[in-house]
């Protein structure tokens, strides 16, 4: 029976390795097709995705209103069940009305201003270009050679910029407006998706407790109680990371946009609504976003009013420093737990796979994955009675498998001298030998012997039989 179990386990291990290798092969060589399939599925499930996003965003508002209403209704003679139903219904309706009111206010106030600013910018672009051309050439009139080179560069740059605005930007905008006006089916589909998304959001918020209870019921019926407790704790932490980052970043960007509008109004900057919207929206993307919005806005101010360009750049840099060192940390805290390197990695990977949405959601998504990996690593370390602090491993050379005593790296001995102190030719050979010895011992405890050991054992038995 033990012999049969041994081969069953070996067969399962080989099957797992082969299946993993095949999956890795398909993932690496068909990554584009996999991403395209994921995008297609996301597009098909657009109403559900919109509903989940709306429900997730307004859930804190619903919880806030629900708690306040329950306190108010506590003084009435209504039954507890009735009070909960009334509080939940009113809080969901109030939260949806707040969301719709904010969106309508944003569209009513910001969109016309941005449209008027873009229209005025395009209409006056030639005049702005001429003024900037005169300013730049007058700046270098003391040196004719530099002035001639600047004139040549500006002529080419302004011509390219004008053509880009009129052909690419305006051309795409006109095509977009034309497609929206002519594509009644497409516009109708978008409206239907939003309406269905709102219905899905309401249903999710109303049945939230039932969904959560059913999911926990499934987990406890499937896994061990200790495992489910860990899963639920990890899920709460992941929700805190993801939700805290998204809501905090939206609030942070809104405040930055308002502060930019106030500052630009005081300094009487041109197209202040357009500039404030660009600065606020691009601020949602971590690290790169603020500079992606600041560069084109600075160039716009430079072309329209060169005298205020330096003031605007100083103001934007000061605003971003305020956001990065004071406002952002106070709102977001350490919600992601990621270092700057991992943030850049998440933005790059997310943007490469899913464009702008990937750049925004890449950081919290990767933060959740990072947290899951960190939790698993810490669990395995605690299981082996080892410390979980990273600083405990920075200068460790090796850990003795039997005693768990640590040997630390020393800088006073050369590699050659360290090798002389070991029985083996180098550290790698020693560690491989120790690991192999422990592996054989562990397999021996479990009744699973390696092929080499079986061969040696059979050979020994045959020799003993021959001697007999």
Order of helices and strands: HHHHHHHHHHHHHEEHHH
What is the residue-mean pLDDT, rounded to a whole number? 75
Using only C-alpha atoms, the radius of gyration works out to 32 Å
Distance between the termini: 29 Å
The largest beta-sheet arranges its strands as: 1-2
How would you portray this structure in words?
There is one protein chain. The protein has about 475 residues and is mostly helical. It folds into 4 domains: about 1-35; about 45-205, no CATH class; about 210-390; about 395-450, no CATH class. Helices cover about 85% and strands about 0% of the residues. The chain contains 16 helices and 2 strands. The protein has a two-stranded antiparallel ribbon with strand order 1-2. Strand 1 (about 395-400) and strand 2 form a beta hairpin. It is extended, with a radius of gyration of 32 Å. The two termini are about 30 Å apart. About 15% of the residues are buried. Mean pLDDT is about 75; it is low at about 450-468.
Compile the SSE list and pairings.
Elements: H1 2-29, H2 31-44, H3 46-73, H4 80-123, H5 125-139, H6 144-182, H7 184-206, H8 208-222, H9 225-267, H10 272-282, H11 288-304, H12 306-332, H13 340-383, E1 396-399, E2 406-408, H14 415-420, H15 427-446, H16 451-467
Antiparallel strand pairs: 1-2
Helix pairs in contact: 3-4, 3-7, 4-7, 5-6, 9-10, 9-12, 9-13, 10-11, 11-12
């Amino acid at each position: 029976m033990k012999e049969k179990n041994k081969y069953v386990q070996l067969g399962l291990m080989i099957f797992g390795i082969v299946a993993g290798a095949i999956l890795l092969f398909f993932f690496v060589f068909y990554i584009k097709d996999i991403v395209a399939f994921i995008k297609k599925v996301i597009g098909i499930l657009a109403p559900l995705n919109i509903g989940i996003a709306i429900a997730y965003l307004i859930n804190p508002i619903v919880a806030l209103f629900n708690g306040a209403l329950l306190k108010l209704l506590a003084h009435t003679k209504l039954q507890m069940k009735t009070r909960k139903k009334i509080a939940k219904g009113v809080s969901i309706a109030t939260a949806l009305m707040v969301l719709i009111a904010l969106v309508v206010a944003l569209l009513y106030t910001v969109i016309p201003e941005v449209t008027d600013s873009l229209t005025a910018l395009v209409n006056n672009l030639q005049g702005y270009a001429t003024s900037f051309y005169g300013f730049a050439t007058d700046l270098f009139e003391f040196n004719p050679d530099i002035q001639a080179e600047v004139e040549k560069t500006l002529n080419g740059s302004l011509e390219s910029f004008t053509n880009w605005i009129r052909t690419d930007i305006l051309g795409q905008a006109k095509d977009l407006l034309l497609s929206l006006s002519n594509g009644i089916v497409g516009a109708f589909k978008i409206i239907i998706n939003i309406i269905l998304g709102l219905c899905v959001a309401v249903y999710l918020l109303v049945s939230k407790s039932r969904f959560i209870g059913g999911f926990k019921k499934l987990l406890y019926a499937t896994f061990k109680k200790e495992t489910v407790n860990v899963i639920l704790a990890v899920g709460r932490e992941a929700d805190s990371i993801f939700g805290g980052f998204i809501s905090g970043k939206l609030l942070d960007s809104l405040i930055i946009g308002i502060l930019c509008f106030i500052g630009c109004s005081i300094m009487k900057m041109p197209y202040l609504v357009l500039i404030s919207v660009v600065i606020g929206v691009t601020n949602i993307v971590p690290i790169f976003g603020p500079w992606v919005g600041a560069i084109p806005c600075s160039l716009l101010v430079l072309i329209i009013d060169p005298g205020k360009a330096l003031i605007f750049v100083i103001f934007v840099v000061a605003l971003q420093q305020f956001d990065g060192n004071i406002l952002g940390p106070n709102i977001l805290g350490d919600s992601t737990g990621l270092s700057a390197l991992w943030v850049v990695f998440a933005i790059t990977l997310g943007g490469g796979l899913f464009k702008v949405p990937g750049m925004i959601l890449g950081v919290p998504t990767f933060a959740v994955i990072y947290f899951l990996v960190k939790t698993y690593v810490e669990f395995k370390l605690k299981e082996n009675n080892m410390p979980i602090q990273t600083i405990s491993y920075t200068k460790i050379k090796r850990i003795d498998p039997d005693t768990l005593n640590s040997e630390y790296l020393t800088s006073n001995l050369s590699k050659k001298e360290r090798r002389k102190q070991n029985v083996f030719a180098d550290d790698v050979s020693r560690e491989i030998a120790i690991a192999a010895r422990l592996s054989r011992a562990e397999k021996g405890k479990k009744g699973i012997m390696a092929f080499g050991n079986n061969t040696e054992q059979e050979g020994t038995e045959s020799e003993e039989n021959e001697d007999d």
